[in-house]
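Section handout 9: paired folding examples.
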Amino acid sequence: MKEAPESSNNRLGVAGWIAIIVLLGFLAAAIAYAVHSWEAMSGVGISPLGWLFMALGVFFTIAVGGGLMALVFYSSRHDYDQ
């Protein structure tokens, strides 16, 4: 297993700070849009079947994501990704 070379300067550069600021801007815009959309749909009701399928979608999305991460860690530990 290779170790990362040690760097004497671990500070974030200007480009890194710009990237962080841009990404935080995207996050703020997404949150503002989500809040606006949520408030605009205040009169819309979701049936129990809708809630069931939404819960199943969340569950399977998390399960697939967790399964893929487990495969990544397994592959890394057993050197299948070389």
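Moving on to protein 2 of 2.
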Amino acid sequence: MSEITIRPCTPADAERLSIVAAATFIETYAGIVDGDDLVAHCGTTHAPAAYAALLADPSRRLFLATLDPGEAPVGFMLMGPPDLPVETGPGDMELTRIYALHRFHGQGLGPRLMRTAIDAARAAGVKRLLLAVYSKNARANAFYGKSGFRQVGTRLFHVGVNDYLDWVLALDL
């Protein structure tokens, strides 16, 4: 199998991030989220312009997982200031997205992305890493539990005309 590399993103990665983000979002939520809402969400939240804006924000950290040769995008993670309905402080950071194509689940990519996130957070002086995950995403919830996260709250995540219950999780670093 070709080698997967995880590296910090550059401004030139907006399109790669957009493609892998939309693909993983559709893989995960097709059949859960209405198709029109799914497409609209990917067309806005996961558009190249949205990732270009995130890449230009110095408070964000993005890492891309690519498959050689040719740097095909297979996963990524995004971190930044917390925007969750729980009490936060200056030592907190949110792991906003940690996405991997389903084809690469169970091959160690998720733990490698999580280790990258934890290392980047610690290097930035972060004391607590937060994230939100769909409450019914059993695979993701098991992964986060195995990674040491614990539930500290809930939120409603809005896609289209529907709300979905997310669990807010935290990991003390």
